[in-house]
Structure formats: structure tokens, C-alpha cells
Amino acid sequence: MQKNIIIATLCSTLLFGCQLMDKNKQIRPHDENRSILEKLADEEGPKVDSVDQTMLKSAIAADKKGQYAKAAQFYQQYLNSSKHAENKHVLAYGEALRRAGMHKESIKVYELVLDDDKNNVAAMEGKGLALLAETRTNEAIKLFGKVMQIDAARWKTANALGNAYEMKKKYKEALEYYKLAADLTNNNNHTILNNIAMTYMHSDDYDMAIKYLKKAAKIAPTKDKKHIDLNLSMAYGLSGDMERSAATARKHLPEHEVLNNLGVFANLSGDDEMARSYFNMALNRSPYFYKKASDNLEKLN
Predict the structure, then answer these.
(1) 3-state helix, strand, coil in the chain (%, to 5)
(2) Distance between CA atoms of 212 and 190, rounded to whole angstroms?
(3) Which of 217, 225, 221 lies closest to 197, judged by CA?
(4) How many Å apart are CA 301 and CA 296, to the nearest integer?
(5) Cα–Cα distance between 57 and 148 in angstroms, integer?
């Protein structure tokens, strides 16, 4: 694969400056400096990394820290300069681009991997996720289907199929794939359980939504508890249980926000009188700073 030529055409999309190259040029340190650095590496022994090794390690380190745009830059430089680059490094570059939000660019890189290995399920899955982010839903569903034919135990793809069908408002199909993903993870993935709950909520089945959100809340890491608890508060509110809705929301929100949310839930449930009451209480709690409740109240009047 001509990685050096094709990969370079994507560099202008990164957050770091780079220059496009022709097929005889690559992004790398000045030749003289490079030879000195690699000579020093040889002289100092195996503990001193070469320039290529340093770029690869930097890419992996940035990836682990969630610095995906930075990781993509290092992967791109490594691919354009190293004689030891493999398809797995091209895949890692594509993943970093996708996670950095550069979905169109990542699709091109995934396609490079698939040119060499048409059944690479990780590349197919990554490309499908990028297509989904670009709202190319039908293409994503088709690709995810191929992945499941090759590896029926791939829970991330099953979950992604649930996402895709939910985007199409096909909630029955979405639930089927979310529940498959839950089974494949032994019902121990809070994100999947949350997805199941939200699909039930879209279908106005609040009891089932509450059931799955409670399960998700029990196993969610601290960083995700607020998100799941607020979804649970919404499920309680839309079901008419304002007391539990408020108690759950108070774990994370000040009182005026809790009251405003209760007003929104009452309004969505068709009880405008109750909604007005909650919006007025929110305003009384924070008359100068809580514009949202005032705006909501005006919409009702």
C-alpha cells in the first residue's frame, strides 16, 4: 500500500500545520538531523528510541489521554516516515481521526485498511461509526450487518446498529440490537443499558425506562452518574412521579433547575397548569438569574 502518498493528502484537516507532499517526499526530520539522531540511538543502545519509535509512542500516549487530534498528527507522521508501519497503525490513525471528530477523513483511512484486508472488522466497524456520525445511516446499517455476519459477538457493532435504528425512529429494531449488545456484555455496560432505557422512553414506556436506568445507575462510573441520574429523573417526571423525579435530580442540580425541569416534564405530559406552577416556583427561587424558567413560562402564557 502506498501509505506515504495517500495518507499525506489528509494532513491539511488536522489541527496542526503540515505540508502536502508528492510521492518522493515525506514529512520527517531534516535528513542530516535524522541520520545523527538515529546514529546516536544505535550508539546508545536499545534504550534510546529512534525518531520513528518516538513518534509512534507519542501517538499511543496521546490516544490514551484522549488527545485524538494530536494522536492523529503523530500517527500520520509515523506512517509517512517509518519503513515498519503496518496496517494496524493505519487503523489506529483512522480511529484517532474519527474520535477527533474528523469523520470524513477517517472514512478514507478506514478504506485504505479495507483495501488491504477487506474483512477487517475493526475497520468496517470504525467506518460504520463514522458514516453514522455523518448521518449516512443506511450505509452504516449495511456495513454493520456485514460485521455481524463475520463476528456475531461484536457488541459495539450491535450497539451501533441500535443507534442507527433509533436515529431512524425504528424503536423495535433498535431495542433488538441494544438487547443483543447487553447480552453480549452480560448486562454490565451502563451505556447500553441507558440506550435501552432511552429507546423505551421514546416509545412512552416509562416503567421499562426506569427499570433499565436504575440498573445503569448502579454500575455507572462516577463521571457518568449525573447523565444517567438526570435521564432517570426525566423518566420519573414523564411518568408523573414528580417526587422521585425531583429527589433524583437534586443529587446534581440546584433547586431552581430541578423545579424548571419538573415544569418541562409537566408540560410534555400535557399538564400546563402544573407546568406554570413549577416554572413560577423556579423563578421565585432565582428571579434574577434563572432566565430559562421565565422563557418557558412565557411560552405557556
Answers:
(1) 75, 0, 25
(2) 9
(3) 217
(4) 9
(5) 32
Where does 1-118 sit in CATH, by number?
Answer: 1.25.40
This prediction's pTM = 0.78
First to last CA, the chain: 65
Rounded distance between C-alpha atoms, residue 294 and residue 44, angstroms = 69
- C-alpha span between 193 and 182 (Å, rounded): 7
What confidence category does residue 283 fall into, taking pLDDT thresholds of 50, 70 and 90?
A: confident
Q: With beta carbons less than 8 A apart as the criterion, state whether 3 and 108 touch.
A: no
Amino acid at 145: G
CB 198 within 8 A of CB 235: no
* Sign of the alpha-carbon torsion through 256, 257, 258, 259: positive
The answer to whether 194 touches 231, Cβ cutoff 8 Å, is: yes
Q: Taking 50 as the threshold, does the pLDDT of residue 138 lie above it?
A: yes
* pLDDT at site 152: 96
Task: Compute the distance between CA of residue 16 and CA of residue 77 in angstroms, rounded to an integer.
Answer: 11
Which position has the higher pLDDT, 44 or 287? 287
Q: Is the torsion defined by CA of 123, 97, 139, 128 positive or negative?
A: positive
Exposure class string for 136-173: b at 16+ Cβ within 10 A, else e: beebbbebbeebbeeeeebbbbbbbbbbbbbeeeebeb
Check residue 163 and give its pLDDT.
Answer: 97
